[in-house]
UniProtKB/TrEMBL annotation:
GO MF entries: ATP binding
Domain AAA+ ATPase: 77-203
Name under which the protein is recorded: AAA+ ATPase domain-containing protein
Matches recorded under InterPro entries: AAA+_ATPase, IstB_ATP-bd, P-loop_NTPase
Organism: marine sediment metagenome
GO biological process: DNA replication
SMART domains: AAA (SM00382)
Length: 226
């Protein structure tokens, strides 16, 4: 079973639960959205979640609602933001809701974690295509920008070089990047080595950091359910 197969199963389920024969306008639209979300690397578990059912930090919902309603301006301005907060505040879901809105508006979008950037960008079989994609895509989410995923200063340094290259290109071309980190003091501890100073000044100039601290809302949900 591959993710492609799973995607097809999800599409079949959409039709089944709609009760049509599959070629109706609604299901065709949903199927097209599914293809785009899969192409954008959005994890399947987030495909059908939306901000209306959002259970995370209320402040996050406000920021996302604002971003979404003015998404075309955000694209033109290249508005880059970073959600910095503890686990369970809804950062991943928020960032993905922005991507889904971008897709619906016809923009290209891509979701990736910081550790996947490091793994894939240092693998010569994919590195060229991936870097080009991450530089060019209209809306990019970099999730889990957390120092715990980088086992050594060496790994951090390697990642820092890649990050600087991608984020500099995107910022200078006014392309929006959305980042999420569990580092509540900001993302500087993720970086190491020669690029740190340059990254520092890039982030200062182009990145708005939103601290989102709060209880782990996922735990609360479980508590309420029991
Ligand atoms: Zn249908």
């Amino acid at each position: 079973m591959s993710l492609t197969r799973k995607k097809e199963l999800v599409k079949e389920k959409v039709v089944r639960s709609h009760g049509c024969r599959g070629a109706c306008i609604r299901c065709t639209k949903v199927h097209r959205l599914i293809d785009k979300m899969a192409e954008s690397n959005i994890p399947i578990g987030y495909w059908f979640l939306n901000m209306k059912e959002f259970k995370g930090a209320p402040k996050l919902k406000e920021i996302v609602d604002d971003y979404i309603t003015t998404i075309s301006d955000k694209y033109m301005d290249g508005n880059s933001i970073c959600f910095a907060g503890n686990q369970g505040t809804g950062k991943t879901m928020s960032s993905i809701c922005i991507l889904k809105e971008a897709i619906k508006k016809g923009f290209s979008a891509h979701y990736i974690t910081a550790s996947d950037i490091l793994n894939e960008a240092t693998d010569s079989r994919h590195s060229y295509n991936l870097k080009a994609l991450l530089r060019d895509v209209d809306f990019l989410v970099i999730d889990e920008l957390d120092s715990r995923f980088f086992s050594s200063d060496n790994a951090k340094e390697l990642f820092s070089g890649i990050y600087e290259n991608i984020f500099r290109f995107r910022s200078h071309n006014t392309l929006p990047t959305i980042m999420c980190t569990n580092e509540t003091d900001g993302i500087l501890s993720v970086f190491h080595g020669q690029s740190v100073q340059a990254i520092n000044s890039l982030n200062k100039q182009y990145l708005t950091i939103y601290p989102v601290v709060g209880p782990d809302f996922r735990k609360q949900q479980v508590k309420h359910a029991s």
